[in-house]
Every structure is written in structure tokens, then in C-alpha cells.
Amino acid sequence: CSPALQAARGYARPVMRRRKEVPSQLDDLPPTMLKKDYANLPIINSVDDVVKRLLSLEMASQKEKMKIKTQQLVEKVRRSPNDNGSFEVQGNCSLPSTVAALTARIRMYEEHLQTHPKDKNNRRRMLMDVDRRRKLLGYLRRVRYSTFENTCQQLGIHYTPAPAYTRRVTKRWLVKKAFCIRVFQEKQKLKAAEKLKQRTEGQERTRAARE
What does the UniProt entry say about where the protein is found (predicted)? Predict the structure, then answer.
């Protein structure tokens, strides 16, 4: 190839688009914070700075950072420091069956889907967690409304009740409904005739026994 053609090919290279940086809920975690398993150890104050750095969030994975974030959200809705059994924090941080843990996981899925919008598997998991959290919040709203308001306010949740189920009325559906009603009525008539027949036979047997 000629130098001019090579230069043209060089100028014709496709432009690589930079991906937009998606803000994460983990950005507010300081990198010097220790991991969840090592934060409360009494010996941690006497170790070297290099060891502290290895045990800090600077070297931690996203899973370990999610544990810290989940613990922070649980602490927001906890009634007291020793509360591990209330509805809002049931199961503490180890089980993602609470509203706080579900909220942290849903936000993680949202951040992932902004970067990878075609990931259908994680989208399905996020929708399942959203439905589960809606059910828990709906129950909490019916049972203890003040706690429900505090939970939504502390976690930044905008709760919207599920819409009422409405079915589109079509001609086929009306005909099917009328047919089902007619079948039910005919079945009730047959049951009534059978009961009347059994009652009559029982009365005749009683009379025969008396005679």
C-alpha cells in the first residue's frame, strides 16, 4: 500500500466512544474504612499500616463493599442498637430478606443495567426483588404505618401501590362468562333434583319401616 493510503486508513479508524461514568451508591464509602469482618477486631489497632490497607475497602471487592452498604442501610431503619428481630431488619445483614438489604441490591442492579442494558438475567432478578420489596412494604403499611413512613424516608424509597387488576371486556369474554354461568345453574339444578330424590327415598324407607 502507498503511504497516502496508509495515512487515509489511519485517519479512518473508528472513534471509540467513552462510556459515561455511572454514579454508584458505593462512592460515599471511604477507601480507608475496614472490611466488615475486620472492623471490630481489638488487634486491628496494633497492626501495620500496610496490613490495614490490605484489610481496607481500597483492596476490597464489590461484594465486600455491598456488605458495608447493606449494614449502613440496616442501621438507618434499626429501632435500637440491639434490634435484630424487628420487621424492618429481620435477618440482619446476612439474609437479603429485609427491606434494607433488598434496597441495596436493587440499586446495585440498577447501576449494572445502566452500563449493560441488555443483561436480561439481572433485569429479571431486579424485578423479582422489586416485587418482593413492594409486598413487604405493603404489609408494613397495613400493619404499622408510622414505621412504614420512617423506612421509606430513611431509605429514600418512593412507594407506589400495585394497580388494581382490570380485565378488558370483550365479546368473547362475555359469551364465555354467560356460558359458564349457565353451566353452573344447570349443575345446581341437577344437584337439587338428586337431593330431592334422596330425600323422597329416605321418607319412603322410613314409612316402610314404621309399617
Answer: Mitochondrion
Angle at 37 between CA 31 and CA 42, to 5 degrees: 95
Can you say how many angstroms the Cα of residue 34 is from the centroid of all Cα atoms in its chain? 28
Q: Where are the domains of the chain?
A: 36-155, 169-210
Please state, in angstroms and as integers, the Cα–Cα distance from residue 33 to each residue in 2, 39, 157, following that order: 58, 8, 26
Section 125-148 average pLDDT: 88
Q: Are 70 and 95 in contact (CB under 8 A)?
A: no
Mean pLDDT of 120-129: 92
CB neighbour list of residue 122: distance below 8 Å, 6 or more residues apart: 109, 112, 113, 116
User: What sign for the dihedral angle of Cα 196, 197, 198, 201?
Assistant: positive
- Which residues, in sequence order, are CB contacts of 22 under 8 Å at separation 6+? 111, 114, 115
- Contact indicator for 100, 77 with CB cutoff of 8 Å: yes
Q: How confident is the model at residue 96 (pLDDT cuts 50, 70, 90)?
A: very low
